[in-house]
Amino acid sequence: MTTNRKAAIIGGGVIGGGWAARFLLSGWDVAVYDPDPEAPRKVGEVLANARAALPALADVPMPAEGRLTFADSVHDAVEGAEYIQESVSERLDLKHRVYAQIQQSAPDALLGSSTSGFKPSELQQNAANPAAIFVAHPFNPVYLLPLAEVVPSPKNDPEAIEKAKEILREIGMFPLHVRKEIDAHIADRFLEAVWREALWLVKDGIATTEEIDEAIRMGFGLRWGQMGLFETYRVAGGEAGMKHFMAQFGPCLQWPWTKLTDVPEFNDELVDLIAGQSDAQSGHHSIRELERIRDRNLIGFLRVLKERNWGAGKVLLDHDERRRMGNIAHPTGSGAPMVLSHQQVLPGWIDYNGHMTESRYLFASSETCDAFLRHIGAGMDYVAGGHSYYTAESHILHAGEAKLGDRLTGSVQVLGADEKRLHLFIRIEREGMLVASVEQMLLHVDMKAGKSCPAASEVLARLMPIAEAHQALPRPETAGRHVGQRKS
Ligand SMILES: NC(=O)C1=CN([C@@H]2O[C@H](COP(=O)(O)OP(=O)(O)OC[C@H]3O[C@@H](n4cnc5c(N)ncnc54)[C@H](O)[C@@H]3O)[C@@H](O)[C@H]2O)C=CC1
Ligand SMILES: C[N+](C)(C)CC(=O)CC(=O)[O-]
């Protein structure tokens, strides 16, 4: 039996719940410590949302979910934990007390803090082992948004910080290394400025909370999610780019467009004004409903970005690739069809008939075929050199239904191969039962010339022994079958 890796989450509120969900759905065991008796319910609700959301971003199987426990003490939570994430309320004295408890039991474990604004050197004050404590600032919902700002102080060991970043990547996050510690890191400096201006606009009666949200979500908010600020403004500079943009809009920095660092007085009147408008705007939805709406919208955005290998979508693709590599044992070409892919039927793969939609059978087969091509040395580096295999013909035979959550394996049997042609029989199976087979003829192509040509000798040197070994395998009964009605 293999044991999962363990993460401890100290503080199980909005953010701790999100961390717990991300680690659990990445296959880690998680122990949560939070003295609030409501914490298990709250974490359970965040986890339910995460289970409905995170798998929809994946195109490779999710690992089996880890085990969630609620510990009775900090000591029990952190015992044996490889990674600890503190997510208690944003109070420095509280965080210091919690670190003292954690480091009594686990002085050397990596200890990330979710703090929105404290600098790591502030968090490290009077700690038993300051070098273990760093900032890992996430964004809500932690289980969907990849960013974690990782902020060390000079007291941290760079190697330990690299290890923490690697763990964050393993759970699908994008660790942004903040090189100089600063109050509120990078993103919250920025968000705080926007927040301050928005409070002014409401307080001064210029705009309601709803009007401000429309101004964001109908316009620049959509741009930010895919290009950020500087790339967006570079494009807005027209053909002359950023220099022209700055020449045109630089002077307005001197104009009274912004109240800059002036903060409206934070009093009950302001809180009631903002909260009242926010209730009027969104009070007809519960918070959990709003979370689910937010999550579905984020999944849509993220999937589009993933299709384009852009921004946060690239993080998702890289994460899939890492998992795909981890899933594949090194197959040999001898004796049996080669198992080359493991996939899981994900929510977006289900059609109106309640089972896996037909295009996904071809997708599952094509992932298997790509794995075979990588295996024989015709992967992306080979393609970059101007040669590739193109599919000339495919025949899918549906033999069973695949349902949501099913784990599928894809295997390849080489039916024939020569210098230019590759004839494959791909089986997609669930627990050893055939769900579909796909027979394909591929042609080796010189991509520039747009013509078939012999494959490189090193590719043939890997392919031909497999093809020869597979000649000894029984030919699949349905190989060569065509689509046609049976004569009665
Ligand atoms: N809510 C947000 O949008 C974000 C918050 N953060 C940061 O995450 C941290 C947590 O914030 P939230 O989850 O929003 O707050 P929260 O109020 O939802 O959760 C804080 C939790 O800490 C628990 N707690 C209090 N004392 C504790 C102790 N001694 N030991 C263990 N648990 C204890 C509370 O019972 C509560 O469940 C803060 O540092 C905050 O700045 C970071 C990113 C976004
Ligand atoms: C409002 N906030 C400062 C707690 C926000 C964050 O820290 C990050 C986020 O998720 O917006």
TrEMBL record:
Pfam families: 3HCDH, 3HCDH_N, 4HBT_2. The keyword Aminoacyl-tRNA synthetase does not apply. Its EC number is 1.1.1.108. GO terms for molecular function: carnitine 3-dehydrogenase activity; NAD+ binding. Pathway: Amine and polyamine metabolism; carnitine metabolism. GO terms for cellular component: cytoplasm. It is an enzyme of class 1 (oxidoreductase). GO terms for biological process: carnitine metabolic process; fatty acid metabolic process. Residues 6-181 form the 3-hydroxyacyl-CoA dehydrogenase NAD binding domain. Signal peptide: none annotated. It catalyses: carnitine + NAD(+) = 3-dehydrocarnitine + NADH + H(+). It is found in: Cytoplasm. It comes from the Bacteria. Residues 186-250 form the 3-hydroxyacyl-CoA dehydrogenase C-terminal domain. Keywords: Cytoplasm, NAD, Oxidoreductase. Its main location: cytoplasm. NAD(+) binds at G11, G12, G13, V14, I15, G16. InterPro entries: 3-OHacyl-CoA_DH_NAD-bd, 3HC_DH_C, 6-PGluconate_DH-like_C_sf, 6PGD_dom2, HotDog_dom_sf, L-carnitine_dehydrogenase, NAD(P)-bd_dom_sf. Homodimer. Belongs to the 3-hydroxyacyl-CoA dehydrogenase family. L-carnitine dehydrogenase subfamily. HAMAP family: L_carnitine_dehydrog. Catalyzes the NAD(+)-dependent oxidation of L-carnitine to 3-dehydrocarnitine. This is L-carnitine dehydrogenase. It comes from Pararhodobacter aggregans.
